[in-house]
Specification:
The protein is an alpha/beta fold. Helices cover about 40% and strands about 25% of the residues. The protein has a six-stranded mixed beta sheet with strand order 6-7-8-3-9-10, with helices on both faces. A four-stranded antiparallel beta sheet has the order 2-1-4-5, covered by helices on one side. A hairpin with a 2-residue loop joins strand 9 and strand 10. Helix 3 packs across helix 4 (about 105-120), helix 3 runs parallel beside helix 5 and helix 4 (about 105-120) crosses helix 5. The longest helix is centred in the C-terminal third of the chain and has 18 residues, at about 165-180. The two termini are about 35 Å apart.
Length: about 240
C-alpha cells in the first residue's frame, strides 16, 4: 500500500526525518518506536500529507502523495491523536460527526455509528456527553470516530500513553482484534516495545531522525541493526 523512498524531511533547515526505504503492506500494522525527538510523529504527519518532503517521495497505492487530490486522499485516512479531542456533544454524535460532514444519509450514519460503538464497547454510553467520559472511554470513542469512516489507513500517534496500564492493555488488545478482523492498515507510534509487539506485525525503529531497522520484535531484540538501536533497546524497561 505504501512505499517510501529516499525520504528527507527538514524543519527550519534541520533534518528531522530520513527514511531510505520502507514498504507497508495492505492489512499490516506497523509500530514505530524510538526515543523522544526521533521523528516518529514526523513520519505520521508525512503520511497524513501534513508535512511535505524536502526530497524523496511517499507513494500510496502506487501514486505519489504529491499527485493525489487532497480531499480524495484525506478520505482514505484517519488520524487518532494522544488526546481524544472530542466535541462537546454525545458519544453517538461524536462518532458520527465525520460521516455527517461527508453528507451521508441519516439512516446509514445511524447504522455505522451503532456498529462501531458496539465494536469499541461504548454503545451503552451513546447518550453520554464527552465531558462525562473517563480517559479510556474517551479514547475508545475517538477510535470509533476514526474507524466509522472505514479508512484504508489508520494513523495513531501515542494514542494510549495517557491511560493507566490496565485500561491501556485492554484497549490495545481490543484494537488489535479489530484491525485483524477488518484487515485495516495501521501505523502506530509508541515508546513501549511490548505494546508495539502486541499490536503490530512489524516494528520500525527510529533513532536520531533516521530509520535504523525494521523487523519483528524478536528480530530486533536478537539482532539490533547497529549500536544506536542496541542503546535504545537497553534504555527500555525490561
Amino acid at each position: 500500500m505504501i512505499q517510501i523512498r529516499d525520504l528527507l524531511i527538514e524543519r527550519n533547515g534541520l533534518k528531522v526525518l530520513q527514511v531510505d526505504s520502507l514498504d507497508i503492506q495492505r492489512g499490516e500494522t506497523l509500530a514505530v518506536v524510538g526515543p523522544n525527538g526521533a521523528g516518529k510523529s514526523t513520519l505520521l504527519l508525512a503520511l497524513a500529507r501534513l508535512l511535505h518532503p524536502s526530497q524523496g517521495e511517499i507513494l500510496y497505492n502506487g501514486t505519489s502523495l504529491r499527485d493525489w487530490e487532497e480531499l480524495e486522499y484525506r478520505r482514505k485516512i484517519s488520524f487518532v491523536f494522544q488526546a481524544p479531542l472530542l466535541m462537546d456533544m454525545t458519544v453517538e454524535q461524536n462518532v458520527g460527526l465525520g460521516l455527517k460532514f461527508r453528507g451521508l444519509p441519516k439512516e446509514e450514519i445511524s447504522l455505522r455509528v451503532s456498529k462501531w460503538m458496539k465494536q469499541l464497547g461504548v454503545e451503552a454510553l451513546s447518550k453520554r456527553r464527552a465531558g462525562q467520559l473517563s480517559g479510556g472511554e474517551a479514547q475508545r470513542v475517538s477510535l470509533a470516530r476514526a474507524l466509522v469512516l472505514e479508512p484504508e489507513l489508520l494513523l495513531l500517534d501515542e494514542s494510549f500513553s495517557a491511560l493507566d496500564p490496565p485500561t491501556r492493555a485492554k484497549l490495545i488488545d481490543d484494537l488489535s482484534t479489530l484491525l485483524k478482523a477488518h484487515q485495516r492498515t495501521a501505523v502506530f507510534v509508541t515508546h513501549n516495545l511490548n505494546e508495539a509487539a502486541t499490536l503490530s506485525h512489524r516494528i520500525a525503529v527510529l533513532v536520531g531522525g533516521v530509520l535504523r531497522q525494521v523487523g519483528t520484535a524478536g528480530q530486533i531484540k536478537a539482532n539490533p541493526a547497529d549500536e544506536t538501536v542496541a542503546a535504545f533497546l537497553h534504555e527500555l524497561p525490561q
